[in-house]
Amino acid sequence: AAAYALKEAGAYDDTALDTVQGASDGTGRDYTGGASQDVDLARFRTPAGLVDAPWAQGKDRPVPYPVRVVADADDPDLLEVSWGGDTYGTTADEFAELLAADLVLARTELTVPVLLALPDRAADAAGL
Count H helices, E strands: the chain? Predict the structure, then answer.
């Protein structure tokens, strides 16, 4: 029910994220509410700096489907999904429903990894 309400509110309308890994293109979702930028998945940032992504090792590896979302700063059990200037609080289970209803994600091969990308520290990232 929550995923349906988020879908009706536009969860899949303006949240597409273009990605690249080497010479391969991909897609994902950006629920941070910011302006989407193309994402190069060959490297990622850690506290120690940029490192090569383990999922990008080898030419036959599929391009991951990243999903950018913000953890609620006040409630470690909630995520914030944003688009079009609106923000909605959702539990991890509701967020999983939202991803399960994503037709673009559903059309990808089962071998495509889904990457949960949090732009900021989460109080309980492991709990998500």
Answer: 3, 10
